Amino acid sequence: MTDAPELVSKKVETSTLTQEHPEDEKTQDICKQYAFIRRIKGDGNCFYRALIFGHLESLLQNVRDMQNFKDKLMQTSKDLLTAGFNESSFKDILNTFVSVVERCEADDQGTTLLELFNEQHASNSTVQYLRLLTSAYLQNHSDFFQHFVEAPSLKEYCTQEVEAMAMECDHVEITALSEALGISIHIVSMEEGDGRLTHHTIPEGANPSLHLLYKTSHYDILYPNIHL
Description:
This protein has a single domain (8-224), classed as 3 helical TM bundles of succinate and fumarate reductases, CATH 1.20.1300.20. The protein is built from eleven helices and six strands. The chain has helices at 15-20, 25-33, 46-59, 63-75, 77-82, 91-105, 111-117, 120-140, 142-145, 154-162, 171-181, and strands at 8-13, 34-40, 185-189, 198-202, 210-215, 218-224. A six-stranded mixed beta sheet has the order 1-2-6-5-3-4. Strand 5 and strand 6 form a beta hairpin. Helix 4 runs antiparallel to helix 6, helix 6 packs antiparallel against helix 7 (111-117) and helix 6 (91-105) packs across helix 8. The radius of gyration is 18 Å and the shape is globular.
């Protein structure tokens, strides 16, 4: 019997990608631009898990930024209340999320972060909360976002496609969550570009510290070569 895949892996060198696709030019380009990759389990929640793990990891050795993020996270409960969520539906998972952040604050080496994100309850609670926050942000800004979803209503879209666990996300959710938390993201896509990687920065013009690899509806975390 084999062990179940980790929710979040340790960092491995991007050269491991060439073992899977040795002749692929896009893979070779990734190896030139990025030193390491961290695999995220492909369970439909990979974007949310990758985003928050990568963001918290980037804050580990900056006490002030970590505290600012925790403060912002606690304030997001107002977004959910404004969108009509009952506090009872998110209080416990928000408390778990805040506890994860606080425990990571005490260990700036990242060991606790990796352990917590591979603990099913803690890891999935952060994902569940991010899904509710994304839904709330979409609904609170419905005048803008309703034009970008294909559903009878934005509310129905949020209930079926955003709030439910294991549902893959689209560009509209990525944009909403980025804005809701003030996190900028650089996405490297292997799905487009006629043999070349394509790059998307959200929001445009930002200088993000979080880099994600998108391939076959899946997200992993990338770490740039420091000399670039």
